[in-house]
Amino acid sequence: MDLILFVIFAVLAVACAVSLVVQKHPIGSALSLIGVMGSLAILYLLLGAEFIAAVQLIVYAGAIMVLFVFVIMLLNTGAETATGRSWPSRLLGIPLITIFLGLLAFILQRMAPSMGMVRFGAFNTGAKEIGRSLFTTYLLPFEVTSVLVLIAILGAIVLARKEID
Amino acid sequence: MPQLNAVPLSWYLILSAILFTLGVAGFLFRRNIITVFMSIELMLNAVNLSFVAFSHQLRQIDGQIFTFFVMVVAAAEAAVGLAIILTVFKNRQTLSIDEVDSLKN
Fold first, then answer.
1. Where are the domains of chain A?
2. Alpha-helix residue ranges (DSSP H) falling in A23-81
3. Could you tell me the pTM of the whole model?
4. Do A4 and B42 touch (CB under 8 A)?
């Protein structure tokens, strides 16, 4: 059952990611990215990370993607047009990306015998364990993150406001 | 025939590698600044999957904490990045990254 669910949602995630890269209009890419994030949330559940799966759906697919879709709607730019000035990335990019993926797959295959199996229920963590770890071991990074978010809010407001004379 | 109730960890990592590579491909080949930005989010998601998979493998929660921090940073980055995109569009009326090349000249 685990294997079937993994294969279904892994194939869905890869299909949506390919669709993100090949779509011509940004709104199609945004909807594909929501598909990737939903599939990844199911995979997180299979890995026993309940809290991360919920946050993935609420923060990523919910908040961040709504922001993206809202900006696409606001700018209303239409499909992208090729300018022909980016030929080096096409010429070099495809072979280099293939080599990169091949190397990653090779290393993972070399590592594979030492890695175990993932069974659902072997290691389930909810909000309780995450919260305990966040407020004991990782208390300082957590507090620093709140400062980062505050700075991001201020930066976004300063950048996006209208100039007042 | 593999067992139906267990998935090898390497499959999760290979899926993560495939998603990351697709993110790199989108980053290199797309010309729309918003799509390039979404490719970066795809790469962050791929790395998150690796973190959670290793967290399960090592029976430690630290990987999930890292995923949590990556999500927070991604949210902050999306807010600031989209504000920058809005400003670029307001000043230049284009979203093509080939047109935004003031630093080159």
1. 2-77+119-160
2. 26-46, 50-55, 65-75
3. 0.91
4. no
